[in-house]
Amino acid sequence: MHFKINLTLIAVLSIVLFFSIPFYNNWLNTNLLNPSLSFWTLYKQMDIEQRKISRFGYSYVIYKEVAGVFASAKIKNPVLLLPPDAFLKERRVTNLAVVEPAIFYYFTGHKAVWYNSPGVAAANCALVPDNNGKVVLKRITTPEDLNNMITAYKKYKID
Amino acid sequence: MNIIGLICILIAQFFSGAGIVRLFRIQLSTVPSWCLSMITGVALTSFVPCFMQLLGIPITHTYTAISIGLFTALCSIPLILPFRMPRLGTIVLPKMYELPFILVFLFLIVSSLWRCFYFPPTPRDVLAGAELLAEFTVREHTMVNSVYSIDLHTTNNQFKSPYLTSLQIIYKLYVCPFGQLWLGSLFVPLVIWLYNILRDRIHSLLACMVLLMYFAIPDAFAYTYIMLYDFSNMVFFFSGFYFLTQYILHKRQPDFAFSVFLFGIATYIRVETLVLVALVSLMPAFNYYKEKLPLPRIALRTLLLMAGPVFFYIVCMHIFIPNFVPAKLDTAGQINQNLTDVSAYFTRLSAINDLLIFSEKGVLVFGYYMYFFMAILTFDLIFIRKFTREARMALFGIGVVYFGLAFLGYLLPLFDVLNTTKRGLFKVIPLISLYYANSGMITRISDYLKRKELKASEPDTQTTTAPRPVVASAKQKEGKAKK
């Protein structure tokens, strides 16, 4: 029995020593015991949309708002022209991460295209930066509008 | 979350897996057998939506439930014919000194399961691939859905195995909107099985310590709740490798057959595993050569090992993609066009060392796990200089993954170092644990602890057995004689 107690003490000691190693201690505190990730904090927020927002961030909110505008404006078959990330950064829009068309479809159920996508001609809306570091949704009404945007975007590489 | 749905799916997975484990006549004790049944069942149920799609059955709640039920019944036939009650062997309860570790493991397991349930899938590869396809399959009741009408030119994830998509479909339909909880059905049985493997070979205290190091690998732990292909691939690759070693050690044909099947599943999850299995096949081939088997038989048996992976490779690349994915995959375009330049292989090998093992990034990914392994191996090489057959095979497996991943990087330039190779290296983690279970240094410490434990428990056994009264009566007799 004494030996088993000794082994139990060794077990406890080795766990304590293991998690005292700075790297593992940091891992434990930041990844597992972090209050923002704790069960009690997260349990208060069980709504599916809220969980998506907290995971995908601000960009997800913007894309959902875009989808909301599509619905309220009753735009038929909306296809969004996505600006290149570098284009937005240059215009001081820093908090919006541009996602690829597949992920936009996952978020909203609506189609999006890059300037170099095969179906770019079908784009009828675009996200464009305003002067306050934000983006606004703009309707593309003429082929000239679309061509102008594509020409402006072509200077930027799509990551 | 739909608890009843989850329980039903877990039961279906368990019984379909148990049926296949029985079909292969795998001899395992109770707990490992349950774990293996669960692991196998997860992969098996992932075939259901694919079969439904192939047969043109709409993927709805009702039809999927019926299909899973029928599939489970079909897989469970070996459990019923001939009818035998499940063998309930003795379950070894944890000892007192294992409890502190078990509490830590439980905490880590619950954390992983909770995150699986709570967080939506985030990796870009699944949001633009499996998760996207699964989400729209659930909405549109077909795997060939509107996703293929959008611009997918920036991603190749639609060409990946249907394994993840199928499991997501099932769990989204019956369990919770984010799916993902199936990761727990792999993770929990894997660690319990691994723990049993370790405990069979080394003292429980050391087994616990090895498992703690396994749990505390930051990236490997993260992928127990972040959905991607590599964790599942690791589980099945390790399982296949383990049964291959058991076949070589004990000459049990069912182990070989099961290993072929498990390697097949690993290939079904990530097709490039085929290359690694081809390298692994050198191990039994060398063994046959040592047994002086004729060359044609060596070749035939080696080809048999490749049968499962090749079958699943064909299923993925020549049946799934041409029939389910309405887009063309340019396989030839993905292969390195300058294969004569072998220096690319060595460049890749040194990149693995520099970026993933001997670097800050390496520590962030694997913790000190790799360094600890190297220290133990060096100690064994210098001081012990004796390796069991299982240890040698585990080392061979580690070598296959290490050199094989570099080879894959040389073959397929898209197979990058910091993402794909990094996650591919997870496959060495359970193999390293298997090595620890056979390491000369660790087994010596284990033997010492076992001896001490046995010695410490001896006086206790004397009190309960016959000798003591005999001794007592002899002393009494002696005393009487003196009087």
Structure description:
In chain A, strands 2-1-3-4 form a 4-stranded mixed β-sheet, with helices on one face. Chain A is elongated and about 85 Å long. Chain A has helices at 2-18, 22-32, 39-43, 48-56, 58-72, 85-90, 101-108, 143-153; strands spanning 79-81, 111-113, 125-129, 135-139. Chain A has 2 domains: 2-43, no CATH class; 48-153, no CATH class. Chain A contains 8 helices and 4 strands, in the order H-H-H-H-H-E-H-H-E-E-E-H. Chain A is α/β, with parallel strands linked by helices and 159 residues long. In chain A, helix 4 packs across helix 5. Chain B folds into 3 domains: 1-84 and 98-145 and 157-227, no CATH class; 238-329; 334-455, no CATH class. Chain B is 74% helix and 0% strand. Chain B has helices at 3-23, 30-45, 47-54, 61-75, 77-80, 99-118, 124-127, 130-140, 162-174, 182-201, 204-215, 218-222, 229-250, 253-269, 273-280, 282-290, 295-324, 331-334, 343-357, 360-366, 369-384, 389-411, 417-424, 428-436, 440-464, 467-482.
Secondary structure layout:
The complex is a heterodimer of chains A (159) and B (483).
Chain A (H helix, E strand, L loop, with lengths): L1 H17 L3 H11 L6 H5 L4 H9 L1 H15 L6 E3 L3 H6 L10 H8 L2 E3 L11 E5 L5 E5 L3 H11 L6
Chain B lengths: L2 H21 L6 H16 L1 H8 L6 H15 L1 H4 L18 H20 L5 H4 L2 H11 L21 H13 L7 H20 L2 H12 L2 H5 L6 H22 L2 H17 L3 H8 L1 H9 L4 H30 L6 H4 L8 H15 L2 H7 L2 H16 L4 H23 L5 H8 L3 H9 L3 H25 L2 H16 L1
Task: Give me a quick take on this structure.
The complex is a heterodimer of chains A (159) and B (483). Chain A is 52% helix and 10% strand. Chain A is α/β, with parallel strands linked by helices and 159 residues long.
